[in-house]
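call fold(seq) -> C-alpha cells
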Amino acid sequence: MKSASMSLSAHNLWLIYSDDKLNGVDPEFFQSGGVSLPLTKTYTFTLNFNF
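ret:
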C-alpha cells in the first residue's frame, strides 16, 4: 500500500437562525408538491487506499 487517506464531512447539522414569525421553523425549508420538507442532515465518511 502506497498511501491511505480518510475524511469526514457533515452538512446541515443545526439551525443557526429562525425568526419568531416562523414559529421555530427552519427558513431553508423548501416546497415539494405542497409538502414542506426540511433539509436533511448529511454525513459522509470516505476511505481512500492507493496500492
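The chain has one domain: 3-14+25-50.
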